[in-house]
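Course assignment 3, question 2. Fill in each field.
Student: A.L.
Task: Predict the tertiary structure for the chain below.
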Amino acid sequence: MPAKRILSLWFPRLGAERLLRLERGTLEAPLAVARDTGNMQILSSLSLAASEAGLTMGQPLRDARAMCPALITRLQNPQAEADFLKTLRRWAGKFSPWVGEQGKTALILDITGCAHLFGGEESLLAAVEEDCLQLNLTVHAGIADTVGAAWALARYAGQPLGMARTGDAVDQEARATRSRATKRRNWERGGPTPRAMPRAPRGARIAAPGATHSALAPLPVAALRLPESITTQLTRLGIRQIGELAGMPRAALARRFGKDVMLRLDQAHGVAPEPVSPARAPLHFAVRLTLPEPIGLEADMLAGIDRLLPALAERLQAKGRGARRVRFQAFRTDQTSQIIEIGLARPSADPDRIRPLLAMKLSDIDVGFGVDILRIEAHQTESLAPQQHKGHFDASGQARANIAQDTVLDDLIGRLGARLGLEAITRRHPASSHLPEKAALTFGAAWSTAYGVDMGADAKWPAPATHRPLHLWRPEPLMGTQPDPMPPGRLKFRGQMFEITYASGPERVAPEWWLDDPDWRNGVRDYWRATTQHGQQLWIYFAHGAALSTGWFCHGRFA
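Answer field:
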């Protein structure tokens, strides 16, 4: 079995070069991407011109503007940068089918058995650099037997070790001038402006199979992906190279710096496993029809939909998925498009259930001078497989129930949702609460099943202990009453006077003491069914703990 080979691709200027690509070569001034951190903005990505101007990553924006007045800045868009990295991940699939993301600016590829397709590892690196040059992207690559070694070679191969002096160095300036000395950079004292990070030769960025130790030995300890605090402590102790760290006693290092140092060292040398986790390709269900001549009639678009839906259904059924939301696009001859979307009450791959919903909204499309491309995409899908495994008897019974199930209600919900929106269609389910206003829960009809569907034919809505009114509202205080627990003879409700001719009750309801409900802070209630002189039946109650009113409220009305 061949040794595993890993390729690490690092894009150090990903954020800035993404914006430069959008400018299409029209921006030549230094560009920097800034992000908010605390009470200030710092630089998160730099273009090549900005690096040559002396700017550094993590530098405060105010200092960068003082050093480079011509600097152009843009705010960081993390989501756009993540999407751009996903695009690069798909591009990297040409070199290996095993591609994963490594942080926010890097990709990791398992190229075991793939390099010979490009003529060897050096030729593969040459192909990567050539593609990135055409894409106007800066890339640093490294190839080794392990993920940690490839990561280190991509970032530190061929780079000078550097002294990394700290305030504890003996040969630094005196204490009185030390703070000023650390702030004075070389180019501030008349030296040359720092250039961009040089790229190591391809041979230096490739560790031969089995030569991981020798390739990592001259690299700095920062190449082990250690926290900056640990790297600083190792530098103060005079340990600057990985080879020096690897030769020290492991027990002493673990006691002083923790287990992370030994873990990273073992991962880089291949002692501890660190597999490449490829990103899962997203499911994509779309079909397209290119027309030889533009069309403009609804009948013609329906004919095109009839040709596209069976192909879409085959792709959905092959993956065991059902469409939940479907997008229809009509591309016009003037390079614009018209889009309509429909939602289904139940996920389905049946063309006969999708077609009527699309036909209802075709009148919203403005064809202009004609449509020459039709496209249908199921951009939201759900699994059609059962969620719970069942035995043969239960599975056959469920299959018969699914076959006999009538989809008329689901189709009706889908049609109403195409006009009103699926969120506007709701259904009620009983709840386990004795409070009147909490006796039922409201669910979206498209995302729930009717009560009793999975409970058998005998399932019925649980009946309350006593009759409940048809209309319920938030309790409203009654005027013209006395603080007496017996029903009043007259009351004023919503600006009208009512005579109480008959009252039945009371029904005592206590609050849920384990929950704090503002509407039930007045304590126990005694509900009465009061009939007025006009025949109306109000549902009123007396709150025994009411302190800011007479205690009488109206909670609803019977039909």
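Instructor remarks: Residues 42 and 61 are 5 Å apart (CA to CA). Residues 298-318 form the longest helix (21 residues).
Grade: pending
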